[in-house]
């Protein structure tokens, strides 16, 4: 595909030339005093990072929050050349590009490389045992998830990458439908867009599934390739033009209830960095995770109101019948998944984490809907 990477300014250098020049400058510094560090301080290392999102999507805004923080925390020593999907490779191909070193980094989701191994979906679009996205992001960092991720990517698949997770996404809407759907029977035969194990789930429920990147969804609806779809959130859906192709929007679903962004880095690239720059790239994910959550809260809620009030879309909560059918479909998929040793170990780990952590979360949480109804009576009756 066409390489749309912007040429760095004259003071910028690539990682490899930076490292080579660093060795030469080190020799110069030994004989020529302290001039070399002053030169290097003005020569940022350019990190080529592509996302899996169109340039217009709000998730590019989320990625920019990460790049801004990294560049500021590194005092300009790191400069991220952030590219939208298709600039170098297609949205679903960023993992291969990072592995091959075509890209230094990527901003994506694990489910986009689900075709390599279904366990990719366990890190964001897996079975729902009762934990939220925050619960499962915590499992990744404190419950052993990051070790399973390394085992899958490096040991099983031999991928030359590191990956970190950030931004616990709110449970994703069931999606956009031309007519109302109230029971599992209403879904039979639908051609539906989703990704990862959610595709297996919907097929279990009687739908046929097309796995498409975000930028292809609405054109596929317009051409009649699909009848219904989900992507992720009200802001992305509005920017894609979803209200132009469907007028029933269903919130609440178990098909993708615990996803997070995946920040990918080529392993050789990352290992070559100074430890402080490695730390900035790694912990910048945590900083962006917080800022992404705040930005999402603001935009998703405002855009949901616009979808309802300006575009006349009927906003529903998915029926309990459909939600119960989703859980039953997950039961069937879990039985199949557990035939694989790695899948079973991941699922056992997640179940144990959710059983303990969500017991605390659910027992401790007051009924926020009760409080909301008290102060804003009738608003939730959609």
Can you lay out the helices and strands and say which pair or pack?
Blueprint lengths: L14 H18 L2 H7 L3 E7 L6 H16 L4 E6 L10 H7 L4 E4 L24 H10 L2 H12 L4 E8 L6 E3 L13 E3 L3 H8 L3 E3 L6 H6 L5 E2 L4 H7 L7 E4 L8 E7 H6 L2 H35 L4 E4 L2 H18 L3 H24 L3 H8 L7
Parallel strand pairs: 1-2, 1-3, 6-7, 6-8, 9-11
Antiparallel strand pairs: 3-10, 4-10, 5-8, 5-9
Task: Write structural notes for this entry.
This protein is α/β, with parallel strands linked by helices. It has a domain at 15-168 and 259-298: 3-Layer(aba) Sandwich (D-Maltodextrin-Binding Protein, domain 2). The protein has 14 helices and 11 strands. It has helices spanning 15-32, 35-41, 58-73, 94-100, 133-142, 145-156, 197-204, 217-222, 234-240, 267-272, 275-309, 320-337, 341-364, 368-375, and strands at 45-51, 78-83, 105-108, 161-168, 175-177, 191-193, 208-210, 228-229, 248-251, 260-266, 314-317. Strands 7-6-8-5-9-11 form a 6-stranded mixed beta sheet, covered by helices on one side. α3 links the parallel β1 (45-51) and β2. α5 (133-142) crosses α6 (145-156). The chain is globular and about 55 Å long. The model is unreliable at 1-40 (pLDDT under 50).
